[in-house]
Amino acid sequence: MNSPRPTLALVHGACFGGGCGIVCCVDVALATPQALFGLTEVRVGVAPTPISTHMVHAMGLRHTRRYALTGERFGAEEALRIGLVHEVVAPEAVEQRLAEILEETMHSAPGAMAVTKDSFLGANGLKLDARQMAMLAHESWMARASAEGKEGLRAFREKRRPAWYR
Q1: DSSP letters along 82-127, please?
Q2: Among the residues of 16-51, which ranges form H helices?
Q3: Is-contact 78 39, C-beta < 8 A?
Q4: So what's the architecture of 9-92+109-158 in CATH?
Q5: Euclidean distance between CA atoms 124 and 109, whole angstroms
Q6: What distance, in Å, lies between the first and last C-alpha atoms of the chain?
């Protein structure tokens, strides 16, 4: 079963690839105006398959397709508009806002929150079984082991454009 307390993410700076996947998975996501996001896996020759279901759930299919296919970067206001984050908070107000959210959750019964989270995910087909998780992990491994994946990761390490760039 899920954690009885809500999970939170706060993005202050760069949040790319799997970092965005984590933001998609939490219950409450905040960002400061300077935050920068990107679903950048395709730029290094791999697919974001392990987090794909969570991205679609958080941002919707059309926004996920756009950003996962282009790998383009976007700011905090766009992340708010497409549903990746819930609020954009000024840096000097972040600690206070986090404290307020945590205080609100203290009024909720832990067991009821756990059942609520489990029910929402289950009723919307968002709970992955072991087979589905294994399949997503395998797809990710296959992409990384492919020629494109190897070239993309090598180009990233060497700070150059990959061979497919024209």
Answers
A1: HTS-SEE--GGGHHHHHHHHHHHHTTS-HHHHHHHHHHHHHHTT--
A2: 18-25
A3: no
A4: Alpha-Beta Complex (3.90)
A5: 23
A6: 48
The answer to whether 75 touches 37, Cβ cutoff 8 Å, is yes
CB neighbours (10 Å) of residue 35? 23
pLDDT tens digits along 140-156 = 788 778 888 888 888 88
Q: Domain coordinates of the chain in residue numbers?
A: 9-92+109-158
What the block records as the tokens of 7 is: 């999970």
Please give the pLDDT value at position 155. 86
Residue 1 clears pLDDT 70, i.e. is over it: no
Distant-in-sequence, close-in-space partners of 118: CB < 8 Å, separation ≥ 6: 1, 2, 127
Burial of 114 (0-12, 13-18, 19+ CB in 10 A): middle
